[in-house]
Amino acid sequence: MEAQNHGSGSYTWTIYNFKGIHQKKHYSNVFTIGGCRWRILIFPKGNNVHNFSIYLNVPDFETLPNGWYRDVTFALTVVNQNSHSQFIKKETRYQFNAQESDWGFKSFMSLRVLHDPIKGFLVNDTVIVGIELEVHSADPSVVLTVTSPPNTDPSAVKALTVTGVDGFDSFFSDIEELIVIAESSTSKGSCSSKSNNQTFDLISGSPCLEEVKEAKQSLKECLSDLFKLNMKDRLASALLTLSRAETGLSPDQQKSVKAFWENFDEFISDFLSFEQDNSKYELLKLAIDQLLSSIRKNHTTHLSNKELLESLNKEEEDMEKRLEEVKIRKRKLMSDWEGLMTVSEEMKSQYVAKEKKLAVAEEKKRIAEERMSRSTMAWSSLKAQFL
Question: MATH domain: from which residue to which, for each copy (predicted)?
Fold first, then answer.
């Protein structure tokens, strides 16, 4: 595993329904900076202190290989929503490892200041926490391997460190520059070869007229298609005949034929060497053109991916907002439910107490009814004697 520099980035966490958070610890969503996964950890009521506690946490530390580390500098900020110039910010540098997967500030700020409605840090039950982070080195690093095309020297393949979207943009900007340079070079035209075909004029009156005609015809055919190997013997035969001809050629033609014939093997070697080198050039040029075409397609795909990522990011933001709204509704439901349980418990206690009182009242009523019955009978007897 090789440590590499990764880059920097920032993340903002908007914490809704802050006062309704009942857990001791509360985590942000996972985000990626410098090719590494992170999340922010807060203690809303303090980590065993009367202060707001904030930390940076490595969420996937349990799945990382032995010996992993991340050397980073980061700054945590609590945003003042009334005045952006009055924020509270603290910075530190730390090397995360298997023994310390989170690091930050136990006493970031006073809970009294945080909850003071005048200060502006807690507005509409919302707190905003931001982080700026730079990854100096990490092991293991996140590496993108560029696959080489067939017949490419493996040593030419580079390992590129990915730094999120910014890293892709930087890489494909270089690719775009390569395409522009290549197209500019192509537009200037490619190398061209010039052939100096000589024309042999027939001078009539030669004593070997037929032989000279045939030799000149062979020479013309050879000159028009020089680089076929089967033309070498015909060319040699034609030059040999013409070099010995005394008629049918002008002095300049005789001089050219003689000069070429005297250096025949050397000139043919030069032509054949050129043919071989030219063939290699054309093959390489074809391979480069094919690679450039593939690079153009990859760059087009990169632009499409970038547009798709923007769409997915927007969709993710909308989903996060909807998820946060659902969480708020869920927390409100749980809070209302707890309130309902408390009210119901009070009503239950009142019911039991009143039920006992009702039993006592019922007994008193029974006794009173018995006494009333006795008194009514005595009253009726007395009434009967005197009325």
Answer: 8-133
